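Lab notebook, page 48
Experiment: co-folding of the full assembly
Goal: obtain a model of how the components sit together before planning crosslinking
Operator: M.T.
Materials (sequences as entered):
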Amino acid sequence: MATSELSCAAWVLHRRPYRNSSLLVDVLTESLGRLCLVARGGRRDPLLQPFRPLHIHIKGNGDLKTLVRSEAAAPALPLAGEALYCGLYINEVLMRLLHRDDPQDSLLPLYVDTLTNLTPAEAAKDVLLRNFEFRLLDILGYGFSLEHDRHGAPINPSMQYRLLSEQGLEVHPKGEFNGALLLSLAQSDWQPDVRRLARDLMRRALAPYLGAKPLASRELFRGVRRE
Amino acid sequence: MKHAPLVQELIDAFTCLPGVGPRSAQRMAYWLLERNREGGNRLSEALSAAMEGVKHCEQCRNFAEETLCPVCLDTRRDQALVCIVESPADVLAIEMSGEFRGRYFVLMGHLSPIDGIGPRDIGLDALEQQVKNGSVQEIILATSTTVEGEATAHYIFDMTHGTSVSVSRIAQGVPMGGELEFVDGVTLAHALRGRQKVPHSS
Ligand SMILES: [Zn+2]
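Observation: model returned without errors.
Model output:
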């Protein structure tokens, strides 16, 4: 088996201890998608942390590749407080949704843009998360229209809708999503009740792909108090 | 080679230790059986006594044999000053420094949502109770400088919102006796951000 060495930009999604001082690191890369790497002695490497742009050198074939070397490509993103919770949430969602070695071209730019936009204290974090979720579903092929129902009819502002997974919105008298608010969301008109609808809609849309276990990072937000 | 069943079981049991694979487990088992039966007996008694008798302190979650650990029982220590650490080993390290006269709260981990470890799993509901009932006046956050350690520190900081509890984070920076050129960039960046003014001595 030829062991070719290659290098690329990468972001750490998850790390877990492996043997004595090594790590198993899941990283997100542009051209190779999500990869799982063995980092020998990685527990002592302060660079192998989430939210820090890295340049990595890897070798090996198959499921488990070896991290040969990593360098900082830029300083870590200064995610603090609620923004840090958002970052952890994004990583948790990606770990659940992405399969290994299944690259999606536009995913890394979306990831980096979202994290970068989360850093200012005044960022509208829920809006950034909703945009991330919506575009992530789209990239993975689970996207749906906010302006047309699953039969192609335009969304009617005076109707209620429900979301059918992998199919889209459907008129339903007991549907939890209001047509007028859906159209506002399509126009990115982020008023408070649109934000609530967007949160519930994305929860519903992501649920089939997240698995049965609840997302632990959602618990963190319960403690967040707005000044 | 096939071991006798009891020997095999001992070898398998040793592999529960961190960093011990089948080969070193076999070496340990052989060594006890061949050379040190007495030590083996002591080990087995100490193990079963500790597994039976060591619990968690009801106040700080550190190891304890009674309801409370010796630190929490010590009336000479400031019980309203609480240093929050991730592991019993961290308690030991801080005790060795001889600088701290308060008590601890031992998380036995850190927040790691991606691994399914949320606030309750590291006892933060219990800590919140202690903050709310007024038994804590000052918190020193000594969680690790990883992303997870930072998230944990922030969660605890959030928890004290609206109370009179004062919160500080231990300083992070260049190790004593360390030469600057060998300090990694991450640590150095932290040290720069947390720099302190040098007072003019009169
Ligand atoms: Zn105690």
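Interpretation: Chain A has six helices and eight strands.
Next step: discuss with group before ordering constructs.
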